[in-house]
Every structure is written in C-alpha cells, then in structure tokens.
Amino acid sequence: MAGPFHLYGLCTAAAALLALGLMQFTRKKHDLSNEAVSWFAVLCVPLGVFFARLGYFLARLNYFREKGLAYFFRFDLGGYVLYGALLGVLLAACLSARITRTPVSRVLDGAAGPGMIAVCCCRMAESLVRLGYGMSISEWFGDPILLELDPSTRLPSSFAWADPSPLFRFPLACQPKGSEWYFAVFFWEALAALIIALIVLLMKRRAEGGHAALAVLLYAACQILMESMRKDAVLTWGFVKVSQLLSAVAIGAVMLICCIRLPRAERKRGRIAAVWASVLLLLGVVIALEFALDEKIAFLAWMHMDVCYLGIGLCCLGIILTVRPLWKRAFPKKQ
Fold first, then answer.
1. Which of 71, 163, 220, 308 could form a disulfide with 67 if both were Cys (CB 3.0 to 4.6 A apart)?
2. CA-wise closest residue to 323 among 267, 261, 266, 256
3. What string of DSSP letters covers 93-123?
C-alpha cells in the first residue's frame, strides 16, 4: 500500500498513462488526429478495467455466486483478465473512431505498440502482488529427499542438479512466498511484451490494421507457452486454462481477419486451408503436451516437463511462422 492506494493499482495506472503518452507521441505515423487519441484516452481506461473485471467474473462464476454479485464491484480486491481488458480497449477504439470519424483499424494500430508497453509494465507489477511465478527451482531439478525416498520419481527437468542456488536471483527467479525460490515467469512475460512492442513500434507502416493484428498474433502465441509455465492462481475452466483458450481464439480471429482482407487474387483455397490445418495441428500438439505435463497420456509419460515446454514453445513459434505469410499478404507495406 502507498497511503490509501494499492501499489499495484498505481503501477497499472502509470502504465496506462505511459502508453497513452506514447500513443500521442507516435500518432502522426498512423495519421491519427489529436482528437481521436484524446477520445481513446478518455474511454480506454474505464472500459478496459470494466471488461477486465467482467472477464474475471465470467471465469469465476461459482465464486461470485457464493460471495454475492455485489463483489463484482469490489475492484479493490483485485481479479482481472487481460483479454477482457483488450476487449474493452477494442470497444474504446470503436467508439473513439466513430466519434471522430476515423477508421477503427487506424486507432488500433496507434494503440498496438503503446498497449504492449502497458502490458509489459503490468506484468512486472505482478511481483508486487506475488503473482506470475512458476515452479520451485529446487523442485524443478529434483528434491534430493524425495529422490532418496522414491528413486523412480519423475523429474520435471531432464537432469538433476544438486545445488541450483546460482539461479536463485532475479530476473530468473523470485520469492513470492517464504524463502523458496520460484521461476519468475512474470519477467519473461514482460520481456516478451516489450519485444513485441519494439517490433510493432519500429516496423514500417503497413495497411491499416496490420500493426494491431501482428501484436495480437505475437502476444497470443507467447501467452500459450507462458500461461502453461505459471503455477500461481491461474484461472481455469475445468482443466483448461482460460488465457490459453482465449489466446487460441485470438489467433483464430487474426487469421480470419487476414483471410477476409486478402485480395481476390490471393484467395487460393488450398493455400488458406493449409494454413488453417497447420495451425489446428500445432494447437492439437500443444493440447497433447499439456496432457503430458499433467501425466494424463500414458505413452508420453517419459517426457520431462522441460521437453514438454520446449515442444509447446516450438509449436507457438510454428504458429507465428505459419500465419505470418498470410498476415503479410493481407496487410502489405504502405508505399
């Protein structure tokens, strides 16, 4: 706490201000008027917060049934979904575009890079509320006591390390509870968001909507891996992690938009079908590896967790490389 304010809330507010300031600074690159940016700034924060909370509400309906629907408005207690915030930002872009008679894709392009900067800051701020951590590093390399009691214990890592203490430092690790060190997944998520932001901000201008589409594609693909690695209070529907499912939906939405935007001469059904089939196959492999992580597939029981994560990471990279040519044809460079 900082006086009457939550330090995490102050950090997210500062992240939003930083992103909006950067959007104002780069608005001319996307031919955005000052009025359009101003309207977007007024609308995106309240709508983003509301829909982020709504996403959390929908993901934890049973919790809110027990506590009472009034808890939905207890914003001070925390509980938000980032994809819900993105939906609120999308609505803010639509409204500000309509008010100022600006193409909504142009507003989204202007917000894409700065928005990823805000995501980076918010991910780093998760350390303040002790979220965003992965497995215990000692457990990852094998607990000597457990191994002595049961030598057949399946190790998360492909090799044991009796003294992994060299990894006990930030940014590789953090101490969210007690003295135990855990992998700092929040830092890797922040780093991924920062890299995406730099890619989107520094890339040459493409057809309207191209910057936003690429940012969503890259972020969603990264989140499939990152969410798998998190071991904190991850939201799930049954055994499915909410963020992973929404990431797959986001990738599908980007692909659909790309297909709609393709020039008629580029709409070759065989090529488009191959892209969709490849992405679905890669997502299927990710699902199989997630089951392997939970030891629910017998013939994959030999796979250590690091091998599973490597496979998921390669699948996510494969999704990006598969969809990228489709994106490039749908959003060509501006002359």
1. 71
2. 256
3. HHHHHHHHT--HHHHHHHHHHHHHHHHHHHH
Q: Cβ neighbours of residue 230 under 8 Å, at least 6 residues apart?
A: 132, 133, 134, 185
User: Does the pLDDT value for residue 65 go beyond 70?
Assistant: yes
Q: Nearest Cα to 107, choosing from 121, 82, 89?
A: 89
**Domain locations along the chain:** 7-133+188-267, 135-183
Say whether 206 sits in a helix, a strand or coil: strand
CB-side neighbour CA atoms (13 Å) of 180: 15
Q: What is the DSSP letter of 241?
A: E
Cα maximum dimension of the chain: 69
Closest by CA position to 213, among listed 110, 119, 118, 109? 109
Query: Residue 163: pLDDT above 90?
Result: no
Torsion angle defined by CA atoms of residues 157, 192, 243 and 49, in that order, rounded to the nearest 10 degrees: 140
Average pLDDT over the chain reads 87
Token pair in block for residue 315: 């699948």
Helix (H, G, I), strand (E, B) or coil at 183: strand
User: Is there a contact between 82 and 119 (Cβ–Cβ < 8 Å)?
Assistant: yes
Residues 6+ apart with CB under 8 A from 304: 154, 155, 156, 157, 158
Residue among 121, 136, 240 at smallest CA distance from 186: 121
* pLDDT for the residue numbered 3: 46
State the average pLDDT over residues 144-156.
60
User: Residue 236: which H helix or E strand, with range?
Assistant: strand 236-237
